[in-house]
Amino acid sequence: MILTTLVLPTKALKFSSVKFEGATKSKYRGPKMELTLTQPDDWHLHLRDGDLLKGVAPHSANHFGRAIVMPNLKPPITTTAAAIAYRDSILKAVPADSNFTPLMTLYLTDTTKPEEIKLARQSGVVFAVKLYPAGATTNSQDGVTDLFGNCLPVLEEMVEQNMPLLVHGEVTDPDIDVFDREKVFIDTILQPLIQRLPRLKVVMEHITTMDAVRFVESGKEGYLAATVTPQHLLLSRNALFQGGLQPHNYCLPVLKRDIHRQAIVSAVTSGSKKFFLGTDSAPHERRKKECPCGCAGIYSAPIALSLYAKVFDEAGALDKLEAFTSFNGPDFYGLPRNTTKIKLKKDSWKVPLSFSFPFGDIVPMFAGETLEWQPCLS
Ligand SMILES: NC(=O)N[C@@H](CC(=O)O)C(=O)O
Ligand SMILES: [Zn+2]
Ligand SMILES: [Zn+2]
């Protein structure tokens, strides 16, 4: 990573149709710091489908080289054939000059067959299988009801095919407190799973607790890793209630106490190879967030890089940022690192209040707030 004090010409961020609160003016004077990073990838992303896909895909393609695309559509992507068709529609939705590559995933169900894993591997476009415990999160109703009872042959085939299992790590038992569901999942499902299949590659997605940090740190490098979202690095559960109920800070697993957030920040800024960037950017239209039974999911794709840079900058660990955004993920998946570069400039800018699309608008994380780091598009 190269740190310079040079200011190079930059293009304004390409936001399609954006509502700003006021003019975006930099208060920063003097030489501007720039970071040059190997182009990052997003190892946990929801691109949706239809008009929503067309609206949000360019935001990810602007900044990220590749993304692991989550399969929780309606209906879910449970077959390789469906993953191939979904991949085609994603490629149609990104700008023609973009080199963005979607890495597809399959949605694991109680009835997924080992043969499907072979097909997935042969396709060359499916890179992982996603475990949603049934009922744990958005569009998880077709997920797994009994992992050990129903899925062991598939998991064994995944070991054979070196196919990673990506995990939404929360139990769904209504008697378990929602803030404890990640820890209980580790103790009752993940730990036994890893003991039973030590050669299965597992990514604990969007970790939220110090328990998950410790669990991942104690695992075998190359076999156990975690993705980390901007919200779980920057917000504690207080953010759900600050000045009134804040639906745009609601995601699953739900934000936790600040001590957990601090543990996650320490883990990612330590330089460990086991943690990598996964935004979990999960767009829902405003009317589906600001309503009596609002959806879980935070839209962060357009601002995620600024937010990760903020975290590493505030921790005095900018020298560790590039491994987290651009090396640890491809190294874990056994994929080449990107060769293109991206620049971030330290220059304050205001996050749009919303992104407007013909079908409605989407409110991003940190809407209307001022951030310091800004990706420059070339
Ligand atoms: N994170 C979320 O709160 N929501 C995600 C699903 C998920 O990743 O659990 C979504 O698809 O909206
Ligand atoms: Zn999830
Ligand atoms: Zn997700």
Automatic annotation (TrEMBL):
Q: Does the keyword Zinc-finger apply?
A: no
Q: Name one GO molecular function term.
A: dihydroorotase activity
- One of this protein's GO BP terms? 'de novo' UMP biosynthetic process
- PANTHER family from the entry? DIHYDROOROTASE (PTHR43137:SF1)
What's its EC?
3.5.2.3
Identify the GO cellular component terms for this protein.
Answer: chloroplast
Indicate what this protein is called per its UniProt record: Dihydroorotase, mitochondrial
**Which NCBIfam families does the record cross-reference, listed alphabetically?**
pyrC_dimer
Pathway annotation? Pyrimidine metabolism; UMP biosynthesis via de novo pathway; (S)-dihydroorotate from bicarbonate: step 3/3
The record's annotation in InterPro entries points to: Amidohydro-rel (IPR006680), DHOdimr (IPR004721), Dihydroorotase_CS (IPR002195), Metal_Hydrolase (IPR032466)
| Family membership noted in the UniProt record | Belongs to the metallo-dependent hydrolases superfamily. DHOase family. Class II DHOase subfamily.
* Keywords from the named record: Hydrolase, Metal-binding, Pyrimidine biosynthesis, Zinc
- Catalytic activities: (S)-dihydroorotate + H2O = N-carbamoyl-L-aspartate + H(+)
Pfam families according to UniProt: Amidohydro_1 (PF01979)
The residue ranges of the Amidohydrolase-related domain are 42-355
